[in-house]
């Protein structure tokens, strides 16, 4: 009988015509965050027969996609595409569920929550600078806007560089930046928190945070043990879901920076799943299990102490499947069961629905009942197909499983392709498939048709195994099993048969294998590989060298059944393998190739020497013997030395010990021996290559016993308790014992007491404890070695003490003498030595501040402790706080510990000078007034009587002017100083005062507002340089000229011009425009005054022209013209006297032009011109207060270049005027340019 597989149709896809309820095949995730810039696509795909239709619900009500023009449902699919262009995304947010229906049932998708991603802006806020004392802890809060999904936090500076983090400074899981302690390097104004929203790929920036670190030597933050900043306190709780990642965090305050370590209380951290991050401050555990719950300890430690925090981890679990409901195919009248088993923490609630309707609200079905959360179906009927939904939910999530029950009445079907041919190798296993589908209780008849000589077919059941999935197995297939096999499936609605064929092939075997070859270099090697195979199979041949492909070399020739290597080289040596493959099997064989030299010359080989032999003992005495031997072969390397070893078979059998060395030319050695040793000797030879093997051992030589020659060493007497003494020593070795019965005679007695020695003999020990001794009493001790042949030498006496006990008496007559407000002297009476009960190490003085006499301290200070060594009975207490009340006590201490404490002594310190005033600031009001502000001292150290304010001006050479003093009342914190000199820097000195005097001075500088009307700046430009001049009456004498190429990203060039009012900028490029400014800086190099930027343009360089005025031909021409003019003038004069007209006069009368005409080439006439403007020096111009540019008579203008007319320029230097008169060609020097460059003159005042 064969058993059919009902699910084969569903998995193999052969049953396209079989009715099937809907099954959801693809859906969007439960929590679906969308990008508001893109269309919303909600996936829902399902299969079934007939193909299902789709509908949706939104927030629990029907969602009609056809009525919304923005919503499209894909054809033959339930997938929604929502066009949100021009729409608010919020209108489509909600909980969606897809229903896939056909006539056999309804399947439901998960609840799909649609939410748009959000990246809100940071709320506007004013962040005040944070001031913190050096060494204190600090938290910079980020608090990003709540986004969806949450943003990724990181800290950067103004240059977009990540702020460095380490064990001292690190970012917490919530994004805040934690400082375990601050350094002066943390002083900066660009702590910027960034939030990156990954879904929209946007980054939001918080306002920069400024941190000011104070480094006050009067109130520094000292070193301290760790305390926890995050999480606070000693205990906290963390909840995590099973399967998620757990992150635990501990950040500690402390100085020095604490080190963080983690451990699990009552267990170990999970192997392979935990890791540390953020410099050990974060413990990360992946794939959390129930076993990960419990208490975790984080320990913070520095050299001042440690602290710990316990985090209790509670593991919860969203529902998870133990057994999800599975699809069920039943025939009419059959029974079945749907199971739904889920677990979680807390335990999930399981409910059932049918076609999306809660089962309690669905129509009653007598064939269905619920037991123990499972649905039991019995005697099902045709038409009762449905889709069942199982919902398992708790507070952390839910699971929704769809499983259909399909009731079908179908004839059997065989799914294995017909006439399939199976091929196997002889003696291997053959498997013939018969995949089938049937809905009734059914059976299969599987049989084999064999053609024998008699033409009959039989089914030999002993040779075959039929599996439950209808597969027929032949364990050992032979050629006689080849043939046609028929599988028949039958039920009440019909039957179906299928034919397959089995072919059993002959195996592939290598008949002639390659053989081991030894080939001389440059010779030829040939390997054979002949094979026998089934005639219907066609084997291929592959050759490998050392299990790798053959080299790509023409010397390797592969034949049909051989490999030939020509011109063999050394690198051809190796293992060669022949592999013969068919589609069903393969065979392989290997052989080695060794390459040798054609005429090898045996080299000189040096090796270790052969071991010595023939060891003999002679000249045998009580404690010595002579050993002789015969050397072995040197093996081409001379012997350098012989090493002699011995074995003591009595005390350390099997252990060989180096005894002595002799030169390589010796063959004998005299050996000194110890008593009571069973000696065996051996010899090793050493040459340049190494040591030889040891020689055979000599015969055994035994020395006679004797009494010990040495006593135990390292004898110590230690007082471990008040009533005992422990005596320890180092035991003798076997060689040192010198005989059998080794013991140690331990003797002791109390020192300086007429008392006999107490002795005790011990064996095989190295210590003894003497009990019942008085406290801290001196003892004399000896330890002597003794064996059966007598005692060792007289032992040395060692002195020690019994143990100490705590002192019993406290110091008395404790007195405190206050010297001043920070120093006090303390004295006491020494305790009697008899009460110390040990060695007096000294006294411990503990004192602590109870309160300040000026203000109420938040809490008492921790006690300070001074140790005074030995017999000291007085000392000084330094560093006391003025005007405070202190408590003090004293105790003696010894090596055991501290004795009782004396009675407390309370004393008070007098008033002292106050600390420095805080936050001294100077602000300017107007030209001659300044406001000085301050805060009272942090430490008053008494009653403040007032403040002393001094101030004096500073001139431009940093010399100080006359000093003025003001006495101010104690309740004043600001003062306005009038009638000061404008544009002047002042230095201020401020002290607070008590009856004891003035405290430390704080200083600050301030500048009165300068009179802007006194300052101006001029400029003029030539071909390669510019001249800048200015007037400045401010108090700061460090003046600089700065310039840069216009529209350039290059840095400004700065040139120092102290002590002058003009400066020439050289090296400017012709034709380039520059921005120029003059700045004044104070003593700290901070800019206090600056001109506006001045734009200047350097003229383009003109071409080098020949001065024709120096040319001979030009001089001759001019002379000829002058002579001609003189002749004409004479003629005109003569004619005028005669009353006639001349041509020049006619032309002048004809033009009647008041403008002067220039000279023209065509008629040779000359116009009038003036040279009064020629050759004037180049000067700057001053800009009037109304902002217009006044032309200076000395400006470099077109007149200077012989063009005539008044040139007018804008403030930026551009030419805006026109020539006066006609524009003519310049014929004087052949210059093609019709315009000449002009300098730019401008003026800017200090701001």
TrEMBL record:
Location in the cell: Cell membrane
Transmembrane annotation, as ranges: 1113-1134
Entries under InterPro entries matching the protein: FN3_dom, FN3_sf, Ig-like_dom, Ig-like_dom_sf, Ig-like_fold, Ig_I-set, Ig_sub, Ig_sub2
One Pfam family per UniProt: I-set
One GO location term (cellular component): plasma membrane
A GO term, aspect molecular function: cell-cell adhesion mediator activity
Membrane topology: Single-pass type I membrane protein
Region span, Disordered: 693-718, 1143-1247
Ig-like domain span: 22-109, 120-210, 226-316, 319-406, 412-503, 507-594
Gene Ontology biological process: axon guidance; brain development
Residues covered by the Fibronectin type-III domain: 611-706, 711-805, 810-912, 916-1012, 1013-1100
Compositionally biased region (Basic and acidic residues): 1143-1163
Extent of Polar residues compositional bias: 695-706, 1230-1247
Keywords assigned: Cell adhesion, Cell membrane, Disulfide bond, Glycoprotein, Immunoglobulin domain, Membrane, Repeat, Signal, Transmembrane, Transmembrane helix
UniProt record similarity statement: Belongs to the immunoglobulin superfamily. L1/neurofascin/NgCAM family.
PANTHER family in UniProt: NEURONAL CELL ADHESION MOLECULE (PTHR44170:SF15), PROTEIN SIDEKICK (PTHR44170)
Protein name stated in the entry: Neuronal cell adhesion molecule a
């Amino acid at each position: 009988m064969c058993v059919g597989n009902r699910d084969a149709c569903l998995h193999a896809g052969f049953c396209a015509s079989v009715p099937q309820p809907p099954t959801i095949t693809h859906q969007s995730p439960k929590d679906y965050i969308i990008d508001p810039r893109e269309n919303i696509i909600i996936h829902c795909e399902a299969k079934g027969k007939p193909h299902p239709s789709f509908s949706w619900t939104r927030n629990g009500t029907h969602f009609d996609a056809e009525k919304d023009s923005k919503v499209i449902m894909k054809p033959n699919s339930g997938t929604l595409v929502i066009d949100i262009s021009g729409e608010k995304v919020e209108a489509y947010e909600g909980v969606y569920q897809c229903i896939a229906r056909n006539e056999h049932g309804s399947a439901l998708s998960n609840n799909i929550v649609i939410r748009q991603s959000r990246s809100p802006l940071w709320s506007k806020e004013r962040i005040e600078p944070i001031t913190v004392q050096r060494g204190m802890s600090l938290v910079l809060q980020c608090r990003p806007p709540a986004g969806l999904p949450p943003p990724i936090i990181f800290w950067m500076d103004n240059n977009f560089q990540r702020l460095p983090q380490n064990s001292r400074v690190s970012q917490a899981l919530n994004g805040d930046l934690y400082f375990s302690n601050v350094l002066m390097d943390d002083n900066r104004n660009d702590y910027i928190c960034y939030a990156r929203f990954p879904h929209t790929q946007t980054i939001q920036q918080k306002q920069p945070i400024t941190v000011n670190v104070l480094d006050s030597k009067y109130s520094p933050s000292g070193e301290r043990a760790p305390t926890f900043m995050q999480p606070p306190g000693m205990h906290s709780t963390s909840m995590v879901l099973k399967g998620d990642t757990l992150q635990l965090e501990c950040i500690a305050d402390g100085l020095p920076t604490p080190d963080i370590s983690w451990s699990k209380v009552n267990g170990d951290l999970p192997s392979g799943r935990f890791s540390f991050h953020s410099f050990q401050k974060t413990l990360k555990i992946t794939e959390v299990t129930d076993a990960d719950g419990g208490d975790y300890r984080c320990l913070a430690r520095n050299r001042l102490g440690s602290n710990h925090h316990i985090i209790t981890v509670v593991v919860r679990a969203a529902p998870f499947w133990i057994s999800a409901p599975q699809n069920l195919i039943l025939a009419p009248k059959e029974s079945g069961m749907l199971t739904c088993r889920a677990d979680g923490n807390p335990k999930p609630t399981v409910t059932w629905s049918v076609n999306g309707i809660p089962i309690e609200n669905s129509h009653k079905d007598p064939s269905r009942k619920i037991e123990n959360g499972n649905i039991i179906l019995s005697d099902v009927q045709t038409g009762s197909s449905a889709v069942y939904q199982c919902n398992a939910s708790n507070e952390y999530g839910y699971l929704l499983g769809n499983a259909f029950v399909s009731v079908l009445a179908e004839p059997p079907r065989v799914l294995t392709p017909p006439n399939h041919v199976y091929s196997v190798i002889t003696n291997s296993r053959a498997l013939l498939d018969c995949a089938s589908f049937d809905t009734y209780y059914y059976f299969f008849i599987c049989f084999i048709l064999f053609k024998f000589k008699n033409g009959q077919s039989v089914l030999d059941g002993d040779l075959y195994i039929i599996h439950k999935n209808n597969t027929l197995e032949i364990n050992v297939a032979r050629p006689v099993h080849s043939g046609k096999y028929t599988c028949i499936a039958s039920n009440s609605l019909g039957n179906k048969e299928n034919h397959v064929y089995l072919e059993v092939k002959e195996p592939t075997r290598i008949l002639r294998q390659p053989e081991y070859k030894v080939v001389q270099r440059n010779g030829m090697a040939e390997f054979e590989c002949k094979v026998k195979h089934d005639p219907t199979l066609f084997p291929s041949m592959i050759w490998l060298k050392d299990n790798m492909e053959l080299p790509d070399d023409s010397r390797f020739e592969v034949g049909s059944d051989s490999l030939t290597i020509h011109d063999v080289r050394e690198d051809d040596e190796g293992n060669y393998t022949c592999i013969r493959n068919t589609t069903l099997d393969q065979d392989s064989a290997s052989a080695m190739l060794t390459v040798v030299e054609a005429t090898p010359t045996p080299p000189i080989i040096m090796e270790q020497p052969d071991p010595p032999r023939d060891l003999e003992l002679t000249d045998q005495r009580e404690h010595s013997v002579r050993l002789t031997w015969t050397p072995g072969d040197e093996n081409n390397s001379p012997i350098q030395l012989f090493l002699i070893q011995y074995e003591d078979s009595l005390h350390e059998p099997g252990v060989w010990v180096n005894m002595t060395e002799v030169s390589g030319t010796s063959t004998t050695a005299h050996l000194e021996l110890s008593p009571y040793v069973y000696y065996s000797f051996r010899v090793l030879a050493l040459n340049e290559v190494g040591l030889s093997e040891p020689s055979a051992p000599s015969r055994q030589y035994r020395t006679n016993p004797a009494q010990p020659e040495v006593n135990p060493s390292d004898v110590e007497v230690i007082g471990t308790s008040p009533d005992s003494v422990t005596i320890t020593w180092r035991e003798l070795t076997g060689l040192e014992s010198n005989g059998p019965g080794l013991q140690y005679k331990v003797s002791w007695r109390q020192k300086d007491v007429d008392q006999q020695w107490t002795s005790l003999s011990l064996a095989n020990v190295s210590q003894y404890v003497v009990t019942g001794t008085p406290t801290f009493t001196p003892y004399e001790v000896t330890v002597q070695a003794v064996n059966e042949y007598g005692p060792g030498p007289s032992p040395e006496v060692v002195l020690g003490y019994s143990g100490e006990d705590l002192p019993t008496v406290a110091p008395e007559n404790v007195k405190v003498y206050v010297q001043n407000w920070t120093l006090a002297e303390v004295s006491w009476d020494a305790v009697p030595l008899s009460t110390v009960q040990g060695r007096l190490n000294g006294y411990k003085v503990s004192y602590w501040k109870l309160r300040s006499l000026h203000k109420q301290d938040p809490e008492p200070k921790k006690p300070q402790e001074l140790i005074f060594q030995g017999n000291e009975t007085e000392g000084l207490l330094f560093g006391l706080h003025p005007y405070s009340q202190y408590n003090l006590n004293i105790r003696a201490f010894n090596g055991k510990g501290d004795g009782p404490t004396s009675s407390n002594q309370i004393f008070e310190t007098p008033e002292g000078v106050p600390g420095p005033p805080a936050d001294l600031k100077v602000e300017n009001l107007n030209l001659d007034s300044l406001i000085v502000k301050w805060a009272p001292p942090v430490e008053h150290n008494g009653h403040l009587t007032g403040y002393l304010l001094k101030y004096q001006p500073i001139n431009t050479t940093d010399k100080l002017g006359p000093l003025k003093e003001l006495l101010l009342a104690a309740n004043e914190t600001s003062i306005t100083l009038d009638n000061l000199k404008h544009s002047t820097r002042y230095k201020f000195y401020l002290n607070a005062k008590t009856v004891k005097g003035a405290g430390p001075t704080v200083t600050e500088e301030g500048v009165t507002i300068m009179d802007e009307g006194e300052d101006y700046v001029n400029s003029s430009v030539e071909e390669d340089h510019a001249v800048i001049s200015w007037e400045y009456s401010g108090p700061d004498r460090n003046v600089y000229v700065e310039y840069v190429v216009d529209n350039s990203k290059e840095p400004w060039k700065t040139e120092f011009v102290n002590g002058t009012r003009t400066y020439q900028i050289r090296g400017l490029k012709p034709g380039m425009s520059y921005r120029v400014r003059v700045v004044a800086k104070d003593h700290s190099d901070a800019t206090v005054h600056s001109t506006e930027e001045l734009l200047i343009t350097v003229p383009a360089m003109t071409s080098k022209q020949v001065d024709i005025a120096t040319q001979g031909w030009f001089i001759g021409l001019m002379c000829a013209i002058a002579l001609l003019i003189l002749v004409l003038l004479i003629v005109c004069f003569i004619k005028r006297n005669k009353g006639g007209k001349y041509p020049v006069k006619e032309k002048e009368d004809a033009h009647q032009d008041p403008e002067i005409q220039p000279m023209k080439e065509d008629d040779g006439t000359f116009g009038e011109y003036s040279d009064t403007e020629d050759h004037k020096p180049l000067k700057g111009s001053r800009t009037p207060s109304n902002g217009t540019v006044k032309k200076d008579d000395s400006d470099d203008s077109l007149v200077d270049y012989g063009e005539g007319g008044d040139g007018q320029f804008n403030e930026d230097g551009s030419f805006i005027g026109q020539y006066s008169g006609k524009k003519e060609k310049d014929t004087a020097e052949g210059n093609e340019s019709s315009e000449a460059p002009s300098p730019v003159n401008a003026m800017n005042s200090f701001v």
